[in-house]
Amino acid sequence: MQKTLHPIIDPRGRQERPLLQLAPRVTLEELRKGKILFYDNTKLGFCNYMEVFVRIKERLREMGITNFVDYRETVRGKDTQKLEEYAAMLAQEKPVAAIVALGDMGTSPATCILTIALEKLGIPSVYITAPPGGELVEGVAFYRAGQLCLCKIDIYQASTKEEVREQIDLKWDYIIASLTAQGEKLREVAQIDFKLDNIPPAANGLLPLTDGLEIREDKLYEPGCYMEEIMEYLDREHLGDGLPVIPPTQSRYERMLTYCPFDPDMVLWREIGPSGKDVTVRDVAVAAVMAGCKPQVMPILITAFKAMANEKYNLLQSVTTSHPGGNLVLVSGPLAQEIGLSGKAGCMGPGHPVNATLGRAVNLVIMNVCRSVPGFCDLDCLASQAEFTYCFAEEPELAQWEMINEEHYNAETTTVYVLKAEPQHDIIDFLSLNGHDLLDTITACCTTLGSNNAYVPGPLVIALTPDHGKMLKNAGYTKDMIREHIHLRAVHEVPMVRNRGLVPVRPPEFENKHPMPVTRSPKDVEIVVVGNRGGHSGVILPWALHSEAIVEPVRLPDGRIARSVEEFKK
Fold first, then answer.
1. Where are the domains of the chain?
2. What is the pLDDT of residues 407-431, one digit of tens each?
3. What are 102-127's pLDDT values in tens digits?
4. Inter-residue long-range contacts of 437-443, CB under 8 Å, 24+ positions, other chains counted
5. Of 2, 97, 98, 228, which is most buried with the most CB atoms under 10 A?
């Protein structure tokens, strides 16, 4: 008997693809009589970028336009709602036009959302962008607005004042047209020539396979059954992470939900990424199929997504940042061992299917649903293996102190700790004979001048091998003592962190500190004992830009703490 053909579910989910109604443009005379809003998302304070607004104002004055109002505030840490509220506050100035800058790096998407909000409020706007953020802004505007006036200038950190001014002069006609053009000319100015997802997701939720490919699951891996063609299609459309995936058919999707009693339409992330799409339980389940997950991991995955949705995680910026960090998922508690998550030998590398597939599913959602695709809508300069997968567990039999779940809740509760962070950095020490010397080695590895935490203090994770954990425990160290030691001694001399790295983001009380700590308090230091015997521990350094580590307990749909994964089985 012939099996039913199974079309493939589109992993992008449903996309709205709105078309923004641009604000009515104004005449030059109205620009002369009215107020021009200049909004700086704080990126113009970097290098010689302030010349962008300096030169624009000079050129406007030459045209008799002199009434300017300036606002400068970061968009970091603001979700879509807060950005729209901020745009409404700016609109109270009643400007006739707005000039927004600068879309160069990680703040680019949030600033694009703000620009869209200004247009919706009836304020004709032009958004100035620069590499590498220009391409990302195009993607955000393509998915969220369909059209927007984007002025791309070619500057970078070493551009001179003269070079910045020259770029404004080269684009001057475009800037003026963005604020004054009408009809077909305005449509031409606001057109976005984006190279990804020109065929939107179909209304039926199935992948729009242009060749009409359909698959029989019982024959999927046999020669001539389209497996290679499917992979080529997914790679061509930038769906997936570049590695082979399991095609998400309806029956596989349904099997993935056998341990997921949550409503498939339940929203986990709101309006995240360039696509601006809500991420639902359904989207996560589809990614879990593609990643090769077994259904029992779904409760952990859902908990991880809930944790990353915490506003303190700064998810909106984290999914497109140029930082090469991944989204670390660290699970502590009995459910970790029940589903086969490992914290034993090699737990951060290959050979642990549950670790690898669970962490991979997180990244597949970011690429497929949020559409943070390298070269299109992702600012990654180099990226890293942590963006394929980044997941491991604590092992009760290795623990020297209370585990994360016990510190926050109790031994029966399973928790998921998430952190946007670099791949682990090796800490080698085979020669120290006591915990005191070992702790100095560990502390010295907790920062470098090239690490984010030299300029943005924040959380970090110390991953101790069992031998190193035992040495510290035998020397009388508690977790809090280790935390205190690292907080006091993982520091930089202030002259070494001036005018290097990135613009500092530190608590106000750090202004006169000397030396400069890389953590805000001892509580920023998390400690786990994992891995194999030997002298290679590790430290996981943070992204930390308005981004906190979040700990979330694994709960059933009714809010009760889950004691077993079997409680989730339908």
1. 28-190
2. 999 999 999 999 999 999 999 999 9
3. 999 889 999 999 999 999 999 999 99
4. 438/468, 438/471, 438/472, 439/472, 439/475, 439/477, 439/482, 439/485, 440/489, 442/468, 442/486, 442/537, 442/539, 443/485, 443/486, 443/489, 443/490
5. 98
